[in-house]
User: Which sequence fits this backbone?
């Protein structure tokens, strides 16, 4: 099939871009190397938009949270990722989490309803020399294409490690020891909590420090970690109390098993390990914040010392892979186009955004930008006061190029509201964003792309 635009990469960003273009009637060739004989170090299958780390899209609160606001804006633009996410949703308190298999299948099914979107299982090794292209190969770009990108940019790609958390079979968790609750009882009893005494915690931390780790390949040895996905043993090495103020924070989690007449509401453990539902059936639960580079046998031994997980059976153990991303503020223009080759756009995590939703949002933007270009319509970016506008602006020039690192969407990227009191500031950010996004969207829809 002849195409108007070529998308390389069938992850969240590439799938979202294909959806935005395809539903506007434009012809798309979507190339995905998995399923064509190639695989990445982190993926398990060949489904489009496979989630390889957590199954969470994080907060769905669009009144006080920047990620939730991004969800809101994407829904208003008929995001494929948000549409499929609703179909695959599983309980996660105030967060949005999905059954990863249902989600991937739903993305592929929806794209399959568009006759002008052709999905081809093939590996692309070089940037096309002509023709509109969106590169959405993500943080695990194949080496030949990465080399081609490096040649086109004239600069070496940056890289960081992204660690994968283990997944536990629900039936193997001892609920006589663990209990279900969300922190401060917000959002329902959606997390399984494993309590630790001080002695158990200190022994566990020492086990993390002493445990045998995977060895890095030569090309990975000098790669820095991204703080948003720090391996738990690396956090432990920062100090004995680090985990108690991070993923193992016990506050807001009263243990009903410990309730007594003296403490009727239960008592806080010294530390708590939380697990979050990972599939619709509730049979798989992932260990929140437990990304790790411990060797598999060491993971099984150590994680079974956690109260309630003594007989844990693991559907997947933790792992580690290298992510690569561009110095986008230096290399890309405000429409995500490569300055040295403007027929090529980049989208998703390879641009230096961090997180599933952010990756999909940038893919969405790239798709709509390309659609406007193909029909000869001038593009206006969303205002910086919106989640999408703030993220796009950060990636394409607002960030410091010399110190550029992957970034999640957050209110720190938004124009400040110093006149608003701190307690009301989050609501003020989202209220302003929704009004500005609505006005921008009305203008976009005035002359359909």
Assistant:
């Amino acid at each position: 099939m002849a195409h108007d635009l070529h998308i390389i990469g069938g992850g969240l960003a590439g799938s979202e871009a294909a959806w935005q273009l395809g539903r506007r009637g434009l012809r798309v060739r979507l190339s995905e190397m998995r399923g064509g004989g190639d695989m990445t170090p982190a993926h398990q299958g060949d489904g489009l938009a496979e989630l390889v780390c957590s199954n969470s899209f994080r907060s769905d609160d669009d009144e006080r949270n920047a990620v939730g606001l991004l969800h809101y804006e994407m829904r208003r633009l008929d995001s494929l990722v948000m549409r499929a996410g609703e179909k695959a949703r599983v309980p996660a308190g105030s967060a949005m989490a999905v059954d990863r298999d249902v989600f991937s299948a739903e993305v592929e099914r929806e794209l399959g309803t568009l006759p002008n979107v052709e999905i081809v299982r093939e590996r692309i090794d070089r940037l096309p020399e002509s023709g509109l292209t969106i590169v959405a190969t993500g943080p695990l770009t194949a080496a030949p294409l990465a080399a081609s990108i490096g040649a086109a940019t004239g600069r070496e790609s940056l890289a960081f490690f992204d660690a994968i958390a283990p997944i536990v079979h629900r039936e193997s968790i001892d609920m006589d020891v663990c209990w279900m609750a969300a922190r401060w009882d917000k959002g329902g009893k959606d997390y399984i909590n494993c309590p630790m005494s001080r002695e158990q915690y200190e022994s566990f931390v020492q086990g993390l420090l002493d445990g045998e780790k995977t060895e890095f390949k030569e090309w990975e040895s000098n790669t820095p970690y991204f703080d948003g996905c720090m391996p738990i043993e690396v956090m432990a090495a920062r100090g004995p109390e680090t985990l108690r103020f991070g993923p193992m924070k016990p506050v807001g989690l009263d243990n009903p098993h410990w309730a007594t007449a003296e403490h009727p509401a239960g008592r806080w453990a010294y530390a708590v390990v939380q697990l979050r539902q990972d599939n619709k059936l509730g049979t798989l639960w992932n260990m929140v914040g437990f990304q790790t580079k411990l060797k598999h046998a060491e993971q099984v031994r150590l994680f079974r010392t956690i109260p309630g997980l003594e007989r844990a059976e693991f559907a997947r153990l933790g792992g580690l892979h290298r992510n690569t991303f561009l110095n986008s503020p230096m290399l890309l223009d405000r429409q995500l186009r490569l300055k040295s080759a403007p027929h090529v756009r980049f989208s998703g995590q390879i641009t230096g955004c961090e997180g599933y939703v952010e990756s999909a949002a940038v893919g969405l933007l790239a798709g709509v930008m390309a659609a406007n270009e193909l029909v000869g319509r001038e593009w206006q970016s969303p205002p910086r006061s919106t989640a999408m506008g703030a993220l796009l602006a950060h990636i394409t020039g607002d960030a410091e190029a010399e110190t550029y690192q992957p970034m999640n969407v957050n209110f720190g990227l938004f124009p400040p509201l110093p006149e608003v009191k701190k307690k009301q500031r989050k609501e003020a950010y989202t209220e302003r964003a929704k009004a500005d996004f609505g006005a921008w969207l009305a203008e976009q829809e005035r002359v359909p792309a």
Remarks:
- The mean pLDDT is 89.
